[in-house]
């Protein structure tokens, strides 16, 4: 039944895959890009009295902290991690930088701030640039109707009050600067549940006036098992030079990692996520998993964040939910001896980062709101490739064309399979992959 529903949604998503190659839009709805975890630039200024290594600077003017590829090299990674980490206060349920470290997110409202993550290494840090470039070919302009909404991605929505206040102001500004034209939100990864949290707290009249649609790319609607893997062993972002032991210190300190843990809404209390010789872990006893690594702060942060979007209340705006599939994605971890041994990873379906059940959770809104919910799966497109792959970015461009009403969605429904076949991207319905084991 679930497979039939997803296949139907695959066909429904065909609206983007057969449009004329060049379209001059009659209306340019302003677009605001909302990044995901790691998608904003962060600067730091130091006035420290101590450091983890004699080579680490203690005092500095403002400098690029994230992303700064040079600081990720083996000789500097411990300095970077100490400056990037957060400290959790269980009394106030908030996080803050270590003493002597001041940080700020740069480029508010400016689309260039989310096109590239490392301002000094554009070629190696492309984020929203290729999508923005597609839109420029439709007549969009950076200084007129393309905006960026960066935020401190280390934090979860409960600590982003200023961001949400500024977000509402930016939406209204974009609307006013473009002849009172409603806004399109394009969100990636964690940016999607963050915007769900934001929209759930706005009045329907405001959403009807200011928001034309929300386009979500690889939305982490209900968490992901990979967050548990990142907590356990770290994530070196695919760069073998980066020490996972060094970077996991910073990653474990982020409330956003707690926010991205598997949701009790979609993972049952008896479904084993971590298996070991002496104890198994599910969403019910996940705090014991954190405590096993002697990091109880994650348990507190998880309690702070687990219910923020747990119910997945419909956003009350038109939604275009796009994501990849058929990419091996961490489904479960198996330890010979917890936590001493590294885990073996068992894979299932997803986009390489987010499990399929979380990616498709947006479908529930089609029965819960009057605004349309469109769902499109792009087979073999992984979590980050959805931002850069030529097939995916062309699809996103055509979503924008569809939103403007330049061509009816129904006109192109039957063309999706032909397009996929010509691109040699076979349909693989969910679950679509046999579980496989990898060793970390």
UniProtKB/TrEMBL annotation:
Signal peptide start and end residues: 1-26
InterPro entries (UniProt xref): AB_hydrolase_fold, LACT/PDAT_acylTrfase
GO molecular function, one term: O-acyltransferase activity
An individual GO BP term: lipid metabolic process
Ranges in coiled-coil conformation: none
A Pfam family this chain is assigned to: LCAT
Keywords noted in UniProt: Signal
Listed Gene3D superfamilies: alpha/beta hydrolase
Protein name: Group XV phospholipase A2
